[in-house]
Amino acid sequence: MQPTDLSRTVAVVTGGSSGIGLATAELLLANGAAVAICGRDTERLRSAEAGLRERVAGARLFAAPCNVLNPAEVQAFAADCERALGPASVLVNNAGQGRVSTFADTTDDAWTEELQLKFFSVIHPTRAFLPQLRSTRKERGDAAIVCVNSLLAAQPEPHMVATSAARAGIKNLVRSMATEFAPMGVRVNGILIGLIESGQWRRRFEAREDRSQDWAAWTGALAARKHIPLGRLGLPEEAARAILFLATPLSSYTTGSHLDISGGLSRHA
Fold first, then answer.
1. What are the CA-CA distances from residue 215 to residues 33, 53, 208, 219 (Å)?
2. pLDDT tens digits along 98-110
3. What is the pTM of this model?
């Protein structure tokens, strides 16, 4: 897949050591971009880095541990990325899993933790990399931010009340940033994911009661229970392709928008 020449693109992917973040980093590298990834788990990050270098020959890759909730660490990571690869023209904000809880059993501390994770995992990297995005836009003509969000932003679930509320806030934030950053030449978009294969789903599969079910049968049954029209879970690389589209000039007249990557699960207008 070679949608455009990304040889002059420097992309940053937070939460890039697994799942959608890792798939996105690999797709960007395969299309010629230089890529920086970060994550909190140093061991998993190093494993991801080694895997990327093995699968993508000549990869221009920088990997460093970083907690996106720590503004000082994010600022240091941004400076290190620029020194290693040059100023970024693409930022992919991708961090955070869902919290299963209802209104009745979500404590104040849990609300605070969830809202802080969802908002500041976008705010801190955006604040740190925006000067680089603005500078590269002047030189290269396109700069983009893509936020990985959830279908919960538009279609909340009562058993994930805190995550649903936080995700809705991020959807609104994307629109606000898109409007504010447009005069700077920086586009801001997002994707709304449904059920995507992940380590979390793999762990649930390993704990299944019916040991006769293989992965395909188990996920197929899950998709049926969740009423996913395409009848399966999505793949991380399918989300990554949507991110690639929004991150490149292929979507040069698109900002403030969200792509639905849910296999038809979405019921919102």
1. 33, 28, 10, 6
2. 889 999 999 999 9
3. 0.94
